[in-house]
Amino acid sequence: MPFTIFSITCLALVASALGCGVPAIKPQTIGSRIVNGQNAISGSWPWQVSLQLPSGFHFCGGSLINQNWVLTAAQCAVMVGSHRVILGEHNRGPHPDPTSFQVMITLQKHIHYKYFSSSMATFNNDIALLKLSAPVTFTPRISPVCLAPSNTSILPGTRCFTTGWGQTTTTTSPLILQQTVVPIISPAVCRQIWSQSRITDTMICAGASGSSSCQGDSGGPLVCESSGVWTLVGSVSWERSTCDPRFPAVYASISQLRSWIDKTISSN
């Protein structure tokens, strides 16, 4: 039976009990339209991760999925033991509050086994898991997101959100975490836009509504909410090189890759 919006509502109570997907600081989700996005409320997307070079340069996003693991894009090419995993960050300005975020490094990196074999040029199976060197300490600003079950089916038009510090123009990157609402687009419509061969079953499309993810957002979250609980349904993968908000962005589908996620975590 497909995992419908009704069953997502039923899952909300279970997810809340497990402690995932419920921000202590509520996000502002009314009127939001990170190209053409808006500043997020500080701490309101507590699973958002910034992947950074040792210099502090942000190059990709990610999502905290439990105390030990972060989910991101395979294309982000994280270097174990070198690149930094920053949790709880909001303003990447020159004088951040050091008590508000945690800095981790990765102990292990696991890239989906079909990412390379399926041709990196298509970004198929564009997902990676990062095991952190130490467990994260959960705070009101740092907590995990729920993962979409493998039988999830989201209705086209569903309003979901993506967040990140990616470029807001082709030359400008923000200091403050950006958010934007993006409607889910059916695979059939997405294939009409991007061509039949480029959109696979491991992808989900959203956007084409005046806002878009862009360079630097890769690996970051696409989340949908039901009854106050947020579920990770996608991970930012690719879009037009110009980040044209008239075209949908493409995300790795968490539900289609859930089996690999669970097996990788359980065996490591």
UniProtKB/TrEMBL annotation:
Any one GO MF annotation of this record: serine-type endopeptidase activity
Main location group: secreted
CC per GO annotation: extracellular region
Keywords from the UniProt entry: Disulfide bond, Secreted, Signal
InterPro entries given in the database record: Peptidase_S1_PA, Peptidase_S1_PA_chymotrypsin, Peptidase_S1A, Trypsin_dom, TRYPSIN_SER
Domain (Peptidase S1): residue spans on this chain: 34-266
SUPFAM superfamilies, sorted: Trypsin-like serine proteases (SSF50494)
Localization per record: Secreted
GO process terms (BP): proteolysis
Source domain of life: Eukaryota
Residues spanning the signal sequence: 1-19
Keyword Metal-binding belongs to the record: no
The protein's name in its UniProt record: Zgc:171592
Organism (species): Sinocyclocheilus anshuiensis
